[in-house]
Request: fold
Amino acid sequence: MKDKLKTVLRNTGISLLISIVLIFCILGTVVFTVAQKVSNEMSDSAVQNLSESLDLIKCTIEAILRSEADFQTMMARELAAVADPEEYIQSYERNRTMVKLSLIMSGQTQGVSNVDEVFSPADLDFSAGRTINGLPVSQSYLNYMGAWSYTIKCPVEKDGQEMATLYVEYTYDSLDKSLPDGFYNSQATLYVMDAESERFVLKPKGMGKRSAGHLNLADFYRANNIVDPAQIACWPMLRLDDVAYNMSTQLACLMPQVDADNGDVPYVSPSNKNFQMTGLTLTGGDEVVFGQDVGAYLNSQGVVTALNFIGGWVCWGNRTACYP
Reply:
């Protein structure tokens, strides 16, 4: 009798255990299924929100480009009305959006610009056939400041006849002010890529600290023929309070100062010697921030830069432009 009771209790316990395990398995399956469904829905929603944000940013950039083309067309009409269009261009002040204006009169191969240089469109590539409001747009390139840029050209017509062509250079950095300060709950970084060259032409500072690492120095050297052993390439500009200076101007003064401090014998490098500055900046006024890793990268490409190191801001690097 006792053996039968033990057997019944044992069988009952096993059945109860199996039932409990089965219930937990069913609950686990239900929880996993619901969690997977919720996760997929959240993922789809996130992708949809991201897609909508990118579409909005794309539309913003397209609107800016159309606005630039409209303004350039209006400027072309003004040029047709003035007595001396070349003088008008030469006296036009540069701004953050239009960094260089140039004009070539019909029948000529060179013209004038507002940066005190003779302008030739020979280096501009319009072969891709891209247009904005009917105006041809060049392929992206690195300008003399090392900033990714593009040029729009517009005919200047008077009495139905084309009298000149207006070329305006724009930098992608000018788009920064119009793009959002935050993106995807501040968890994403937005880059702007040129589809033709597949190069990143802008990392807006609103999306994070601007880094020298996105600058393709090899392309910049080729574009500007900076390969001479006697050249010293400096990047970026120095800022002392609210005034920006070319780094080369301070370096040109620092080198003889270091020589004078060492018996007028030029054997000590100006690297790691103090600059008079409070920060780094680009030509358009955007702050540049980076650390020793980027400084080392710039040095490895033959570029002298500045770092906020022990003892304050110092010159960093002692190689010339032919390196490596």
